[in-house]
Amino acid sequence: MDNASKYYLVDASVLPKVFTKVIEVKRILESGTIKNINEAVKKAGISRSAYYKYKDFVFPFYETSRGKVITLFFTVEDCPGILSGILNKIADSGASVVTINQNIPINGFANITITVETGEMTTDIKDILMEIKKIKGVKSQEIIARE
After folding, report:
1. Of 70, 51, 54, whose CA–CA distance to 62 is shortest?
2. Which phi and psi (to 5°) does residue 6 adopt?
3. Domains observed in the chain
4. Per-residue model confidence as pLDDT tens for the chain (147 residues)
5. Interior angle at CA 128, CA 101 and CA 95, nearest 5
6. For residues 47-60, b (16+ Cβ closer than 10 Å) or e, as one string?
7. How far is CA 35 from CA 31, 46, 52, 102, in A?
8. For residue 141, which phi and psi values (nearest 5 degrees)?
9. Could you tell me how far CA 71 lies from the centroid of its own chain?
């Protein structure tokens, strides 16, 4: 049998509660409000053994995007400045643009694919996407690939 790790993206609502509790403990410890694992697991409502069993295997999706290459896909209206606005939001986050591909607008809309390297990001990718969504003319956005 192949010993290589396999990863799946699963909606948290279908996972056993222990997995979300492990992530909660990690967030508590990361926040610095509680520095002791015993207190953090007690606050989250799980045992220390459950935390240690899963801590190296359960991560929020956006946490694992740090130091990676992520490809984003946007559908935008054909208006001046939209691509510039998107790139500014990416630059403000500290992410580094690797490639940009913008298709010729058809029926007033264009598709844009941007690949970014996230190693120097100071903001989560989800927060960047929320900011980009606010740009007038951005109709849709999604993460289509992640390395």
Report:
1. 70
2. -120, 140
3. 12-59 (no CATH), 65-146 (3.30.70.260)
4. 455 667 777 888 898 999 999 999 988 887 888 889 999 999 999 999 999 999 888 877 655 555 578 999 999 999 999 999 999 999 999 999 999 999 999 999 999 999 999 888 888 888 899 999 999 999 999 988 877
5. 65
6. eeebbeebeeebee
7. 9, 16, 16, 47
8. -155, 150
9. 11
Q: Which residue intervals of the chain are DSSP H helices?
A: 17-31, 37-44, 48-54, 82-93, 125-133
pTM score: 0.58
CA distances, 87 to each of 100, 101, 112 (Å): 10, 12, 11
Q: What is the CA radius of gyration of the chain?
A: 19
Q: Decide if 112 contacts 73 (C-beta within 8 A).
A: yes
Distance CA(64)–CA(62), nearest Å, equals 5
Q: Measure the CA–CA gap between 43 and 45, rounded to whole angstroms.
A: 5
